[in-house]
Design brief:
Elements lengths: L1 H15 L5
Length: 21
């Protein structure tokens, strides 16, 4: 499903742009 593609992108962005972690 498309969540696999967009979800992975969002996950990477979230992990990369998470200043509290």
């Amino acid at each position: 499903h498309k969540f696999s593609k967009e979800g992975s992108k969002q996950a990477l962005l979230n992990l990369t742009q998470d200043p509290e972690k």
